Amino acid sequence: MIELASAHPTTVHTLPNGLTVILREVHSAPVISWWVAYKIGSRNERTGQTGISHWLEHMMFKGTPRYQQGELDRLIDRAGGQWNAFTSMDHTMYYETMPSDRIELALDAEADRMMNALFEPEEVESERTVVISERRDNENSPTFWLNEELRAAAFRVHGYHHAIIGDMTDLYSMTRDDLIAHYGAHYRPSNAVAVAVGDFETAEMLAKIEQYYSDLPADPAPTLFTRPEPEQQGERRVVVERPGHTAFVRVAYRTPPATDPDWFALTMLDSVLTGPDGNIDNKTSRLYRRLVTTGIAAGISGSLEETIDPYLYNIGATVSDGRTLEETEALILEEIQRVQADGITLAELEKAKKQARASFAYAAERITNQAYWLAQSAMFGDLHWFDTFIERMNAVTLENVQDAAQRYLTSRTRVVGWLVPTGMEDEA
Fold this sequence. Notes:
This is Insulinase family protein. The protein has helices at about 50-60, 70-80, 105-115, 120-140, 140-155, 170-175, 175-185, 200-215, 260-275, 285-290, 325-340, 345-365, 365-380, 390-395, 400-410, and strands spanning about 1-5, 10-15, 20-25, 30-40, 80-85, 90-100, 190-200, 235-240, 250-255, 295-305, 310-320, 415-420. By secondary structure, the protein is of the alpha+beta class.
């Protein structure tokens, strides 16, 4: 058993069957959030089975021999709790946030469906229809197509090249046996991390967890399918033509994983260029002033995700009517070159840090979010990632930001995407 340095008592324990358990006492409210995270996401999927992790997540709500479909919905709602799940590129997570005195329902539910999920043929086909419909809904957005093509150009080999929802051809062709095999290979204690945060005593909570999970099979951890991406040899460009009237630009660069110190410098750079994450106004960001205030773009955004493997820093702009893709892209590149040549100011860096601290503090108020970030940290293989987030952010210097811009935002690792609108079909 390991004690983590934290503002709240935190313990890490591994059960004999390989399940890693993280417990954090937070006595601010009579609530406990229980998360079970599996080390399987879309990055581990093979061609022909893209989207299988997300589809499997849907099947986990279809019941077990003990809990019929819909029964847990009613029980958790009646207990005053909430539950949900999501699939990411790197992992799949399930959670319940419950009144403290009803947490055993969550423990039982997740232990049961870790081993006993049902795959009734009619339910498999029903969810096939659901995920295909979800994919079609995504396709109604022009930027979905642009982002998909950009990602595929950036990653020729690595599993980050396809969308979490999967390719349509795979959603039609995958079978029930594929889902069952994927479930059996990856949903096991040795491939999972369980996190509890909230109003409990550690020894008592651990005893409850052992009661529900210690008898689950001690199968070895699976060998996860991954393919390292070769080094990019030069700029790549994609052009997507879709019905509509609005043009979009994406400029993306290969960036390090979230555990790399440079990731935090790039987060500060993103805040300066496009604005901070969260519900904070970005009108003072460099690219907003350069593009939106001047009427060249209708909107600007930046995206730097927390990932296990190197991914992308993505800058996006919505081109204003009467302006061009060429000039919008050129101005984005000019601002990047300015940072590379001259750096950012101390005032910009301090503002970015202040905004990051505010967003982090707001998000961390919720017990559910705290549990999620601990689970995320475990997925990264760095249990201190969440607890040291602000410390690492505060340590970023002006030199770190300029160096990161020079190192990662290069033409060699750049991928540019244009969405060219073709008008609407009924206008022809």
